[in-house]
Amino acid sequence: LGKNIIHKESTSSTQTIAHEHARNQAPNGTVIIADEQTDGRGRINRNWDSTKEKGIWMSIILRPEIPAHHAPQLTLLTATVLADVLSSYPLLQPQIKWPNDILLNGKKCAGILTEMQAEQDQIWYVIIGIGLNVKHTREDLSEELRHRATSLGMETEKDWSIQELIQKILATFEKTYELYLERGFGEIKEKWEHYGFKIGKEVNIKTMKEEWKAPFLGIAEDGAMLTISKDGHNQRIYSAEISWFDN
Ligand code: BTN
């Protein structure tokens, strides 16, 4: 991993570039990094603010031999990689908000976007997009974002090296990914639950169909969130927004 790194000063989105390279047979582990994205993408069709040299904007191409329905595990794996890297700095206590936002003091500092090309249950390639806010100051964030988003710099008042963080993320990713391919998802799941935000607590769950309050019980082998349905049964949630009220 990271033997083949493609660096762009400015690009639309490293995801888009990664798709092009993956279609053109780029090897497993190819990494695309940009100093700036002009059209950074977040989950659910959101924009992702990717200002020049303020953070890490990168996409990793993987060609794992796992069934396509296991791909969500890779997103959760990536979240544990970021949490491990951040928690290696004594100042930071990262948490993961299901499915894959990284929080510092309750505010989002990183997001993960997984995209895949597969045929039936066979993966052709997976692209893991990582966005990590590093050097943003309060002034860099809009009034609206300030309540929900943060950066490493804002939480610590330290001058972070983007290069050092990239190296740590890639090294930790490689180790964790190899462990996953060898031993499966079990240890990753435990680690995820260690960092998981609001596990055991009541959260507000909003799916396409309905909205209700229920306890967040943990995650399943396939990456689903475990909870209790509106009518009181065990339920697995694959896609939803969760939120909470602090009390
Ligand atoms: C989210 O919505 O939380 C996911 C954000 C993912 C952003 C990263 S930045 C690098 C890669 N390129 C993109 O356009 N998006 C991902």
List the helices and strands and how they pair.
Layout: E1 5-11, H1 14-23, E2 31-37, E3 55-62, H2 71-87, E4 95-97, E5 101-104, E6 107-119, E7 122-133, H3 143-146, H4 152-156, H5 162-183, H6 186-195, E8 202-206, E9 211-215, E10 218-219, E11 225-228, E12 234-237, E13 241-243
Parallel strand pairs: 1-2
Antiparallel strand pairs: 2-3, 3-7, 4-5, 5-6, 6-7, 8-9, 8-13, 10-11, 11-12
Bound molecules: biotin (BTN).
The CATH architecture category of the largest domain equals 2-Layer Sandwich
Compute the number of strand runs: 13
Helix/strand structural class: alpha+beta
**CATH structural class of the largest domain:** Alpha Beta
User: What is the topology, as strand order, of the major beta sheet?
Assistant: 1-2-3-7-6-5-4
N/C terminus separation: 43 Å
CATH superfamily of the largest domain: Bira Bifunctional Protein, Domain 2
List each distinct ligand once.
biotin
Arithmetic mean pLDDT? 94
Describe this structure in a few short sentences.
With 247 residues, the chain is of the alpha+beta class. Helices cover 28% and strands 31% of the residues. The mean pLDDT is 94.
List keywords for this structure.
SH3 type barrels, 7-stranded mixed beta sheet, 13 strands, binds biotin, DNA-binding, transferase activity, transcription
What does this structure look like?
The protein is of the alpha+beta class and 247 residues long. The protein folds into 2 domains: 5-195, Bira Bifunctional Protein, Domain 2 (BirA Bifunctional Protein, domain 2), CATH 3.30.930.10; 202-243, SH3 type barrels, CATH 2.30.30. It is built from 6 helices and 13 strands. The strands form 3 sheets. A 7-stranded mixed sheet has the order 1-2-3-7-6-5-4, sandwiched between helices. Helix 2 (71-87) packs across helix 5 and helix 2 (71-87) packs across helix 6. The longest helix has 22 residues, at 162-183. The mean pLDDT is 94. Bound molecules: biotin (BTN). Biotin binds at residues 13-15, 37, 40-43, 46, 48, 50, 57-59, 101, 111-113, 129-131.
